[in-house]
Amino acid sequence: xxxxxxxQSCGCSFRSRDFGTIERFVEPxxxxxxxxxxxxxxxxxxGLETHCGEKVxxxxxxxxxxxMERDGWVNSTWERKENQRDRxxxxxxxxxxxxxxxxxxxxxxxxxxxxxxxxxxxxxxxxGKAL
Amino acid sequence: xxxxxxxQSCGCSFRSRDFGTIERFVEPxxxxxxxxxxxxxxxxxxGLETHCGEKVxxxxxxxxxxxMERDGWVNSTWERKENQRDRxxxxxxxxxxxxxxxxxxxxxxxxxxxxxxxxxxxxxxxxGKAL
DNA sequence: ACACATATATGTAAATATCATATATTAGTT
DNA sequence: AACTAATATATGATATTTACATATATGTGT
Lengths: 131, 131
Fold this sequence. Notes:
Mean pLDDT of chain A: 88
Distance between the termini of chain A: 26 Å
Largest interface: A-B, 56 and 56 residues
Low-confidence stretches of chain A: none
CATH topology of chain A: Arc Repressor Mutant, subunit A
Oligomer: homodimer
């Protein structure tokens, strides 16, 4: 048995990092936030924490944004203002909106798989209605 | 723009592999199947394809099973029968059931995050009821 | 003898996530 | 003036996870 992780929500311990994370989930979250208004990387942090359920790694965020720009999902321009450090402002593109739409559709399938697991679990482990 | 992937369900294209996959989702699926009855690796393939929504890499499956045994979630014994190749039969352990329970609880949070994204998406892109 | 399905397993590379660190600017404090 | 902290962007190094290919062995049918 190699248990190295202690779960904060239910107190149980298990191997490595938290379970249930969706690969690159931060990307549609970024695109949704940028759909509302352009923003700079640091300014996205708070909204992303809400959407992702935990603090987002800042370094990862910046690297992701550059990658998304390389892939054509966002554009960026430098914003220069008095009494403020230069910020790189990101704007969503049409390709970005297309991917967001796809991601949402794809996550519906993911959602179905999760609920399929839930129903299977309930059948095998009934023990009361609440879980 | 670097689009290298063509989505089979909606026809759109985007970078790298399919979106929406949950890290190590195969593990609770394996544990759920083994909760019903012991099984060998190859015999799990069909059930896992249903639960995971696509074919599971066979090599990955075997490696995952050995890792889960190392972590104490399953046990294995060799089954020897006439007219049949030796099979390694896996059985779920108490630790395995504990992790499955945790995984289900954790996936409920994942589910909430997905639906939070959905509701945010609907607000920004209303366009009709159905999506 | 051959092809094919079953069955288990490993090698290698790519993609992704994590943790640490570097750099620069602004605002407030001692 | 020196310091501390928050803001802001970015990279280096490592670990984890996934994907794809390959190796090996057995049983079944032709």
